[in-house]
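Hello again,

I reread your note about wanting to compare the complex against the isolated chains. To keep things tidy I'm splitting this into two emails, and this first one only covers the full assembly. Below are the input lines as submitted, including protein chains and any nucleic acid or small-molecule components. They are followed by the predicted structure of everything together. The single-chain runs will come separately.
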Amino acid sequence: MTRQKIPAAPSIRRLPSYLHLIRQAEAEDCEFISGTLIAKELHLEPIQVRKDLAITGIVGKPKRGYPVKPLIAAIEHFLDWDNKKNAVIIGAGNLATALTGYQEFKTHGLNFVAAFDTSSEKMGKNIHGVSIYPLDELTVRTKELGATIAVLTVPSTFAQECADRIVEAGIKAIWNFTNRKLNLPDDVVCQREDLTSGYAMLCVMMGE
Amino acid sequence: MTRQKIPAAPSIRRLPSYLHLIRQAEAEDCEFISGTLIAKELHLEPIQVRKDLAITGIVGKPKRGYPVKPLIAAIEHFLDWDNKKNAVIIGAGNLATALTGYQEFKTHGLNFVAAFDTSSEKMGKNIHGVSIYPLDELTVRTKELGATIAVLTVPSTFAQECADRIVEAGIKAIWNFTNRKLNLPDDVVCQREDLTSGYAMLCVMMGE
DNA sequence: TAGATTGTTAATCGATTAACAATC
DNA sequence: TAGATTGTTAATCGATTAACAATC
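Full-complex prediction:
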């Protein structure tokens, strides 16, 4: 059984921000970058940055900081972003169009190979070059294209139904943009991006 | 100074899921709903649900559970979802279209009153009925329409620049969908939805 | 060398979970 | 009444922060 509780989850969530900053340093031909600097830029504590970077296995140099190129490699390897992953996207609406259009995902190994929808008008069309197919073809196309990730962007009411089809197609990782908790087998991992959670946070912060 | 660290943040993030489930119970004319049931549905511990609901001030009845209608009211009031809030959306692209199309936000008090973009082709058009204006009109329109929230959906490279304009327009709450940390005055609150963080989590989970 | 920065070890803080009396 | 469920108080767990020796 794949455990859904990931150790050091908050650290993992911060790594992409570090990576972005470190890539900027690389573009400016810096050979080293210090945790102190990263912390200042992102308004974090230096000790937190050092602890977070430590999970990638990188070792820094006192007084200099971390070597930029090896640090980038270490973060990308830790996140498995140096490996290409094929993804299908279920629901070819505006959110799907936004996601397939993010070039950043591609540079981090995420490759959209097909989109699926039930609306007959969309068939034969594409979103940012990703062809749209009928949902019924999900299993066949998944095998054919070697997809290992499913991105779920359908209306919430169809979330579970689509999740079942995704599981049926043999996909073991779901990126769930609906606000529904999915019932899934233990060997399928799921990352939920719940926008209503974020909105709730914003509302509470506004009242402080 | 508004503190950005919110106590009980994880609890707040879970409340919307509870609310959704409790609304379903209401639709089925249940008078009470137990924390035990909510926990089972969402794969959480009952004690966690009880603790979370306690922050809303609701009091349950032993053996029965929580009274559904007062519980809904308590959660909505705690999240300030019983108050209408006007929002502008900066960047009228696919993500903006997706967000303005979510009916759920409207039922939670979020009312999009205007969209802003710099592309001249988009002027005079609308997304889900929300008119698109030139970014230069942000300050004027914000005052005119009484907007208190800005939703930022522009490409990352323009994030800080747009944030500065949002601050200039007098808006004190930003829902930031770019992957950039924004530099903001202390009295402006910001909720960041970092999709690359979520993707990082999914990647690490896949490797377990 | 002097001093900034690292990595380690310990302390603190906050969130989750456990135990259990109260109660409808 | 008996038993399921609540709310409180305490224990555990994990993440953040602090202190500081090591070092380039």
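For quick reference: Residues 7-8, 10-11, 45, 47-48, 51, 61-64 of chain A lie near DNA strand D (CB under 10 Å from a C1').

B.
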